[in-house]
Amino acid sequence: MTGILVQRFVLLGLMGALAACVDQANGGGAGSRDQITAVGSSTVYPFTTMIAEQLVANDPDAKAPVIESTGTGAGMKLFCAGIGAAHPDIEDASRRMKASEYKSCAANGVHDVMEIQVGIDGIAFAEAKNGPKMQLTPTDLYKALAASPGGKTNTARVWRDVNPALPAVPIQVYGPPATSGTRDALAELILTKGCEASDPTAKPLATSDPDAHKALCTRVREDGVYVDAGENDNLIVQKLQSNPNAIGVFGYSYLEENKDDVNGVSISGVAPTYATIADNAYPGSRPLYIYVKKAHLTAIPGLRNLLKLYAANWGMTGPLVKRGLIAAPTAIQARSAAIIANETVLDPAVLK
Amino acid sequence: MSDTLVPQIPVSNAEPVRRVPTDWTTQAMQSRIRRRYASERRFRFAGLAAVWLSAAFLAYLLFSMVSQGASGFVETRVSLPVDLAAAKLPVEPARLAGRGADLALAGAGLEGTVDLAATKAFGKDGNELLSDGAWAVVRDAIKADPSLLQRKTVFDVPVSSPIDVAAKGNGTRDAEAVVARLKAKGVLTRGFNAGFLTAADSTDATRVGIWGAFKGSLLTMVVTLLLAFPIGVLSALYLEEYAPKNRWTDLIEVSINNLAAVPSIIFGLLGLAVFLGTFGMPRSAPIVGGLTLALMTMPVIVIAGRNAIKSVPPSIRDAALGIGASPVQVVFHHVLPLALPGILTGTIIGMARALGETAPLLMIGMRAFIAAPPSGLNDPATVLPVQIFLWSDQVSRGFVEKTSAAIIVLLVFLLAMNGVAIYLRNRFETRW
């Protein structure tokens, strides 16, 4: 009795497995795709997802876009892997595309890429409400965080070691990992600035010996003072609350959302606020981009609409600003809107 | 031959010297006994402490998840009077029946009407109080009853995420002041958030739902089970019952044991290279997730299956063969039914591991924002553990409780899956 039952059970399973195989043979393949796919920065992710949601809300027949948060660098690799349904249409980037990345794009046939700046983000430094109320400069941060400031191994343990005006509080910084665009911005906007300000030999190195410049200016120390907190910025906020001496590095939107729990740390006397980041007074502000493959505009339904929706929402009082985006100056908004309207492709000569 | 082995013949009639019984009362003996008992007690205490510690961890986990997540199933609503008659929305009643109803109402400016009603009822920033999905609630009500368009009606609509969090006692100071004001007016109510169980991912914490990820997990698990179970069981049967014992089968056995110990991320890389790279299957699809997880689950099922088949007494096989059963009949009528409970236990362990797995799925792109539940095996989808991971990274505070609520759903899914397996196991269980 049970024997027959078991036989049926196994047969059923086998049939199911076969059915699954047939299904995979029919449905798979890299032929066509009718939903938008986007990859890239975790900083731009919340904004692109919001636009995607609006796209679906406005048109019930639209397929829901698929948006992955991979980090800018990993996203560029996926984006540049080729043209066609198997490759993403949009890359969210929290920094500009590098010339080397464009080269790998072009090598795989991705020539016509539209570069659209959607807004600005600031990398904010923050401490707990009951923290020591730090006042830092890029030079302080460079001397505290670089692996070898001035060519010597970094031995600073307390903030007073890097600047006698600062309190004798242990240096402890929670920040993003090396694959993150936020980390690139930290290196470029803060550490390089501090490096070149404190060491006059650094600036010429950038052109004569980029590797030496990197080692001197942007390599972050690995002796436990800078704690790599992963891509999870909420975790950094929690760590700051439990450790009032620590300083956290994350995107401005997290500071905005948690302003009851953490305070922004002023850099060169400028506090991270919407106004200071928007007018570039705060040193940690950086542009946010999306990159779109022109060849996909007609092939993927809804892609043009998505771009139009982005343009309609990135204004000063738009919904994206409520989500934590900082609107770009009106001139840049107009330029980006023109790129969308005329489908202007990026000139690779402007990339670094 | 030595003398000692030869039984000695008593040479005299004297009684052999009797062994003096152990004197348990001496000081030395007493202290030895005390030490023995003490070590016995210590061991028992250590064992009990280990059990209590693990129970305490489990209780803490369940308590913290339920206490944080329970509010995720509840939403705060505000009573909003909307005068639809005065708004005079340009909608033809005929269009409210078909598929175009959503589009018609959105095009007629229903969202603006609802925002306007909120500003009228709650002051200048009134529309900030409402969730992005508030107007959709009004829309669905109108679709269900078009006559609402001719009336002034009070709708209970969900509030925005900051207000919702504040009403649950964890919000910012500004939001809590607003909540106190609304409470004084008596317009706040609470209710079960049905949308959480039926909707998919969203960027607004008040509109998110777990159904998209749940369905993704379900589809992925179905593919995994349908592939891993039959292939695993057949491999185990062949290796135990038919395979000759030689170096090849030894090699296969070692490989399977090794495969069961391979870290799951490796299977993700394999899936990425083989299913996405070589076969060109769609990214983020449950079919690829299922295939990848099946690779991971199969060795566990094979190992458990072989052990279960091994433990079926050979006498049963001999008896069946003896009365004339063919080898296939022996396997399917006798060995497999008797081994099934053990095989199912192995399958549960493998499937439970697959259900909680994130690492290989990240590699094949199942870590994505998808605003609609998947409708088939090739549709982009995400799974429960990845959804939990994604929500834990969200900026908005409203996602904290949603993350815990999603964990509760995952645990319930796991319990249900194990429950089914235990039921099946008991149904096939045979004792001898």
Provide structural commentary:
The complex is a heterodimer of chains A (352) and B (432). Chain A has 352 residues and is of the alpha/beta class. Chain A has two domains: 37-120 and 286-350, Periplasmic binding protein-like II (D-Maltodextrin-Binding Protein, domain 2, 3-Layer(aba) Sandwich); 122-284, Periplasmic binding protein-like II (D-Maltodextrin-Binding Protein, domain 2, 3-Layer(aba) Sandwich), CATH 3.40.190. In chain A, the strands form two sheets. In chain A, strands 1, 2, 3, 4, 6, 7, 8, 9 and 11 form a nine-stranded mixed β-sheet that branches. In chain A, strands 5-10 form a two-stranded parallel ribbon. Chain A is built from 16 helices and eleven strands. Chain A is globular, with a radius of gyration of 24 Å. In chain A, 44% of the residues lie in helices and 15% in strands. In chain A, 47% of the residues are buried. The model of chain A is unreliable at 9-30 (pLDDT under 50). Chain A has helices at residues 2-27, 45-58, 72-79, 99-107, 138-145, 159-162, 181-198, 202-208, 210-218, 233-242, 252-257, 274-278, 296-299, 303-313, 319-322, 330-342; strands spanning 37-40, 66-68, 90-93, 113-128, 135-136, 173-175, 226-228, 247-251, 262-264, 266-267, 285-293. By secondary structure, chain B is mostly helical. Chain B has two domains: 71-193, no CATH class; 211-428, MetI-like fold (Orthogonal Bundle), CATH 1.10.3720. Chain B has 17 helices and four strands. Chain B has helices at residues 27-69, 84-87, 101-107, 110-122, 134-144, 161-167, 173-185, 195-198, 211-242, 247-260, 264-278, 286-310, 314-322, 327-355, 359-363, 384-392, 399-428, and strands at residues 74-83, 152-158, 188-192, 368-370. A three-stranded antiparallel β-sheet of chain B has the order 2-1-3. The radius of gyration of chain B is 34 Å and the shape is elongated. At the A-B interface, helix 1, helix 2, strand 2 and helix 11 of A face helix 3, helix 9, helix 12, helix 14 and strand 4 of B. Chain B: It holds the Pfam family BPD_transp_1. Chain B: It is found in: Cell inner membrane; Cell membrane.
